[in-house]
Queue: 2 jobs
Job 1
Amino acid sequence: MGQREDEFLEYVQSGGQIEVDDWMPGEYRARLRKFIEMHGNSELMGVLPEREWILRAPTLQRKLALTAKVQDEVGHAQLIYRVVEDLGKPREQCLDDLISGKSKFHNVFHYPTKTWGDVGVIAWLVDAAAIISQKALLKCSYAPYARIMKKICWEESFHILHGRDVVLTLMLGTEDQRELVQEALNRWWGPLMQFHGNPIPPEDDSMFVWRIKSQGNDAARQQFLDGYVPQIWELGLTVPDPELRKDEETGRWHYTEPDWDELMHVVTGHGPKTADRLDLRRAARENSAWVRSVLLAA
Amino acid sequence: MIYEVFRQERKGQAFQHAGSIEAPDEQFAEWYAREQYGRRGESTALWIAPREALHPIEDFVDELNRNYHRVDGYPLKEKLKEARERASRAAAGDR
Amino acid sequence: MSERAELLLGIADDELVLGWRDSEWTGIAPFLEEDVAFSSIAQNEIGHARALYELAAQELGTTADELAFDRQPEEYRCCRLVELRLPDWEHTIARHWLYEEADAARLERLKASDDPEVAGLAEKIDREEVYHRMHAQMWFDRLKDEPRFVAAVDELRPLIDVRDGHSPELTELWEQMTEVRRSQPAGTTW
């Protein structure tokens, strides 16, 4: 690295933030853009598993809350792609790369949603895991990204409330309803444990080194377990991991090592619902291409 | 077209930059800004402006360090300390 | 059932079913900004339906949710226009524009009602519908020279006043809408 790169690194590592027009090392720009683009893709693809339940929501209040949650996620994709665009990659190109499978999106959005129980567990626990990752971006060295994260985290907090309310209501309901939650938890636990990524030490994680995020993968997972496992247990639910326990001395959670091969397989485009969801995105985009061209021509 | 959006959280507060949106024209921009930055009632007012209409100014030249109109032009702490010491010495000498 | 309850249910069913249909665009609208905007419109329509059902429910001794979900498809009073599944934007905007126009006239009549509760609710609803009308008109102005849009408006216009019987699409929608709810005994909390 040259002197200018060294100074930049030192600047961001001491908490400095930069703006869109400031100089940044080529490697920083490339990694930052890729990371933010994947975040945008994840918001956009994260819409699809829950969207399937908008038409099936069982009360008017749930219908409104779920529609609003999915709407928020589209809004987040909009905010995030704008940041990517200002870093030099147009939104249309991001969408092309997403649909062609060239760029990635988060593991949890490659799985099917099978019951209304999934809707509750996703909104509660997947969003809880996501908010931990996103809070680690509030101090991002790239200031425009850090700024939109405030709005995103604020909106995500409603989603967790909605999810927890759905889960609590089911747990207070019939035997079948409680079963829906337990089954959904069993399905989602594996992907949730993979959510924050493999445990590379922060000093080897370029996202941390450049202070794009302020926390390493393992710390994020520990924070998730610490915050949410007690909340899961107190409802009488069983976490499907016989190894899961907190070491009271070290304060660390022990768990069965997540399946990192599965994570890699899924995020490289081989998840159970990857192809279907990309097909849906592609079809929706082609179906309305004429609308965009009419508006742009005006 | 890209429109920059500024939002006011409560009446009387300053407008702050909220983010930006893409819209084919001003009418759509107004709609999309309203939805993206106000649908939860989190803003009392929005300003939208085409990005091109904003003229950023970032050069504030001060080659000769004109510090007399800034706080750092008046380092009172040291002088105050010295003055207090002097006063207490003087008081001791009087006795 | 009283004339008042019938009136309220008719409008509520229109708003509910249209809101449900419009919500099919949440997540897949032509572009992201429009997705956010159109989803709010869908949510508003469902909010209006809920308020209207609540007013009817007081009289009928039931709840808004029971009225929205626990009737048979043939009991709904919505017009043919709102039932249709319209998975393309030209038909969706054509319906939006046609509906808003007809709804505006209906709200004017309701606002003049002798019943203060009905008139008051119509006032509230209309204050939101003003924005829906602006949105519909904004799109109409942009698409009015597009042959596919003109054709969609012509095709859908006759369906606004059709209220005798329903299309099979309403039954399909009803089956989806009530799928989760029907999976447990009546009265289960969700």
Note: Chain A touches chain C at residues 44, 47-48, 51, 53-60, 62-64, 67-68, 70-71, 73-75, 77-78, 81, 91, 116, 169-170, 172-174, 176-177, 280-281, 284, 287-288, 290-292, 294-295, 298 (CB under 8 Å).
Job 2
Amino acid sequence: MPEPISLIVFTAVGMSGAAGLRDISNRRSGLSDYAKYVTHEAKTLVEKNDRSLSMIGPRGAALSDLMDLKGEHSYRGWDGAEAPPVSSVALNRARELIMSLPSSIPNPELAVDPDDGAVSLEWYAGPSRIFSVSVGLSLRMACAGIDGTDSWHGVAGFDGTKAPDFVIQSIQRIIA
Amino acid sequence: MSSLPSGLEDRVHDAESLARFCTSSSWVAKTTGRIKHQAFLPAPDDDTSVYRVSGMSPVEISSHAEKHFVDPENQPHKHHGAAIVEARNVRAAGIDTLAHEGPPRHANLRGWPRHADPELQKSKRKEVATIIADKASFLAKS
């Protein structure tokens, strides 16, 4: 009886990472029935992973930056004062917002807010042309922007699927 | 004008340079070194802590942080450099700069907007902090 997929993944990744899994999926000759089964399952996993990465596409860099935020901001007082840690809820909601952005919107720069541990997405188009939105525990996101001598602020609701029009229009204003 | 223990005047002049030590690498744009507004957002006590650094060299500013920007156990806080901004630019954004020595040369940025709606309050504070950060420059740690 073939081992479960989880054991195959554990063995491959544990031994040599994702490259090990891809190597197993590429084997061709001199295979027993069992080895052929393992190769087939590894190939299936690699194909699923590649499809996921292609769906992430140009947002991959932003999502990678998002994951990097956790290490430095995972404990209370990371700012030298009383900043709360960045929460997994805020990170997940930030990921949802990034993935909901139209392809015409460039990737944001990311930061963590010291007042409440929210994740901030910021777009910078030059001096005095900045817009940012903070994603925290609430479904309502605090936003602010400056465009030359104009500045504005507001609150936008986000249900996790469609990026708010207020956010998209603000970004388009400063990158225009 | 009376003097503080540091020897500085108790009133912060518009032309004075203020240093906000950046305790998160995410507050400084990786590619350009631009200061982001998070560097100036107030702490839960509604103050933003800064140091008056006019006339100090970059090495002296770093040394000052090592000695006075410390935790309760007197260990220096980890920081990535300083956001430098003139007091006049802080005041132009509607925030005051008030000397507050405990640590030498320490001051607070005070007067952040308030609103009963927490998200609306935060959005207004983001706007103000963005205006201030837009006038700030980054001084790498020496």
Note: The interface with chain B takes residues 69, 72-73, 78-83, 109-116, 120, 122, 124, 127-128, 130, 132, 134, 138, 140-146, 151-155 of chain A (CB under 8 Å).
